[in-house]
Amino acid sequence: MFAEMRTGSNFLEANLNAMKGIACYGEVFNPHFIGQKDKTELMGFSLADRAADPLALIRALRAGTDGLAGFRYFHDHDPRVLAPVLEDPLCAKIVLTRNPVESYVSWKIAQETGQWKLTHAKNLKSAQVQFDAREFETHLARLQDFQIRILHGLQITGQTAFYIDYEDINDLDVLNGLARFLGVEGLDALDDSLKKQNPAEIGQKVRNSEEMAQALARLDRFNLARTPNFEPRRAPMVPAFQAARGAPLLFMPVKSGPVDRVSAWLAGFGGIEGDFTQKTLRQWKRARPQHRTFTVLRHPLARAHDAFQRQILSGAYREIHAQLSKVYRVPLPPPGQGYARPEDHRAGFLAFLKWLKMNIAGQTGIRVDAHWASQVAVLQGFAQFQPPDMVIREDRLAEGLAFLCAELDVPCPALPPAPTDPLLAQICHAELQEAARDAYARDYIAFGFQDWQAPPVSG
Fold first, then answer.
1. Fewest beta carbons within 10 Å, which of 150, 184, 347, 458?
2. pLDDT tens per residue, the chain (459 residues)?
């Protein structure tokens, strides 16, 4: 049973245990106890035994139970258990949910009163609690993340779960539907050993109900502000990584960024090693325990313009050039030729940026090439192998590289001068800035980019 604190999991477990052929053993993987509060042993397993091999305890539950063995699993229970359970098609899944405001307030009341179960109404302890907006938002994010992980795990393995809400656990017909889902005999009546705690209206349970209402009104309940992401996932691109021969530095290049400049700087350490596989790169890392890994970001507008010139206008991607021109009506000169006038270049680049928005969103038949994929997606690809230790912005490249060298206590080679893009400075205007923001919304949000400005001319 996937659930959380204060969702009615005790009541649902009691009713499951009332069904013939089911034994639910409680919070078997709670970090502080096994099954029930203060219990430290189950099926011959101690806390230390469980820590050493949690899956062995699951096997023991199965072997030692006449019928179906089960347990409750919350988001903060042993994480080693989640994937094997989700991937096992022979394990039936129940997902118990509750209005997150109700579960949060109930949790706060239980904390204040110390009463986590109620078996006799005369023993009810009640209290009003303070609603904490920040704490609730953390609570909500944690619940949503856990539910998404469960749903994704079920989807990719082709399984389904029995979803049941707190409001339905008192419905005998629903519980008997759950029994049919599990393949066991249903109930004649509900278990009455546990009583509902805090039955009052939610506003009566908190001391600051007006503040709570205002805080909830600010929450984006339907996630309307979310930036949809249909960009394909990227591989780590390990063969493109570059290592300095004379220093424990590894560069993760982002294509259409300042790769040539950083490579020239890296070569100042006696040369560059490359063409790694994941195996050889791990070997390189083991041999250099003090290593540092870094990448460099470029402003999205400048990066898109670099890709436009080097990959499209140059004719490097002739097939994509032809499709852009014929299918998507991007005004392009013949491959290998430039525009006759700056205003023509501006119009072509603007059309390319608008096409990029569709391309990155998966709305074209052309691949999302690494030269213009979002930098968020590229770094997420790196993270499949290892995230970089340091992410440097191109406009602070000298300071970032000097910091890395200072960390490693190695001399910092001279950084080659930054290349200029006078054409972008000439054609840049508000419409291009807006089109870049539309195409690379994730990058602007994730990395805090502002409008592009031409770098100052040195000397």
1. 458
2. 999 988 999 999 999 999 999 999 999 999 999 999 999 999 999 999 999 999 999 999 999 999 999 999 999 999 999 999 999 999 999 999 998 888 888 888 888 877 665 554 455 566 788 999 889 988 888 888 999 999 999 999 999 999 999 889 999 999 999 999 999 999 999 987 775 566 667 778 888 989 988 888 877 766 666 666 778 888 999 999 999 999 999 999 999 999 999 999 999 999 999 999 999 999 999 999 999 999 999 999 999 999 999 999 999 999 999 999 999 999 999 999 999 999 999 999 999 999 999 999 888 889 999 999 999 999 999 999 999 999 999 999 999 999 999 999 999 999 999 988 999 999 999 999 999 999 999 999 999 999 999 887 654
Cα separation, 17 vs 37, whole angstroms:
18
At 203, list the tokens: 């506003």
Q: In Å, how far from its chain's centre is CA 204?
A: 36
- The whole-model pTM stands at 0.69
User: Does residue 153 contact residue 83 with C-beta atoms inside 8 Å?
Assistant: yes
Q: DSSP string of 296-328?
A: EE--HHHHHHHHIIIIIITSTTHHHHHHHHHTS
Distance from C-alpha of 298 to C-alpha of 256, rounded to nearest angstrom: 8
Q: Amino acid identity of 228?
A: P
Backbone phi, psi, residue 292, to 5°: -130, 140
Number of helices followed by number of strands (H, E) in the chain: 18, 11
| Crossing angle of helices 54-63 and 79-87, rounded to 10° | 50
Question: Cβ distance 127 to 112 under 8 Å?
Answer: yes
